[in-house]
Please model this.
Amino acid sequence: MKNIEIDEEIYQCIVSNTQFIGESASSILRRLLSIEAETQPSTSPKEPVVTKTVSQEPVPVTKPVEVTVAKDINETVFNYVNKEELAMQRGAVGRFLLILAALYRGHTTQFSEVLEISGRDRLYFAKSEKELAESGSSTKPRQIPDSPFWVMTNSNTTRKKMMLTKVANALGYNEDDAEKIRELL
Amino acid sequence: MKNIEIDEEIYQCIVSNTQFIGESASSILRRLLSIEAETQPSTSPKEPVVTKTVSQEPVPVTKPVEVTVAKDINETVFNYVNKEELAMQRGAVGRFLLILAALYRGHTTQFSEVLEISGRDRLYFAKSEKELAESGSSTKPRQIPDSPFWVMTNSNTTRKKMMLTKVANALGYNEDDAEKIRELL
DNA sequence: GATTCGATCGGAGGGATAGTTA
DNA sequence: TCTAACTATCCCTCCGATCGAA
Model:
């Protein structure tokens, strides 16, 4: 993966060509550029050409359950994460909250399992600001966007990553996916 | 400026389209995308095509000049402003820069007129950080994204709004549009 | 005296790291 | 005691209201 810096206008142009929630910049650009690469007038620009590339390998329906589930989860969550929005965040806290929000959206019902995750004496997650605030000093509670959950935010990036890993695990992700999630931060 | 993550393939594709030493990703992409953006075979690739989506209502060619101009300007600029992106900014400074960037994009050639706008002793706009910094103390110069211009940032919101109004006027907007622009902040 | 302008300084957010505890 | 895990202090940067200056 490479990071490139582009201006607002280009960014908007790319974003406005998103064809599904969570589509990555690469995916969008591949579509746009490949159409352009042919000097031909674009025929059917709406076709989600790129997408297909990714899901090339047919999902093996016969495979063991765990694998299938993992795949579902994976797709679910990564669709909820908007890479561009992530990249735009000023600091790790913003990304942290965005990722958690995506996980919540993808696992609304089981999400309360994260309440089990906590530090030695501080709580990491709670259903109210107060609860978190009272479990330590300067915990800097923040609400996970569009959810009834709050997170403790006063920690270094390393710990935030650990927290993400724990959340991923609690929600049933395998190591690989947990790693991917962790690395979003 | 935005950072986006793209895969190697896309990256190579972009790089290989460089047309001069030091060309930025934005510049390359602008070329590539504007060719692509028109569903038609590219006629004049330099046209800010993206804009068209929004400008559904045909521009009345027969109307008086002033009106036409105002309309063009209006469309140009408001298309360049992404409301969501604006809303996402943490503070007024972020929005301020975004709006100015949009104005720059819409009026690249005349934009140097803003250099006339200044305070009693401080400069408000300049072509370099240094210039601004030296014109006062703690002016907090910031580059207007994707432009060679810098703005003074150390002021209250009211003054930032005034600055926007002045810029809008300098670029030929009427009171109404200037007001709209000011209110974006 | 009224108004405009400048830039200081308090406040908030972020997060590395020093310090603490198990 | 030594170490690993965890906490929260504290420093830094960014904002922008406020108040003194012109």
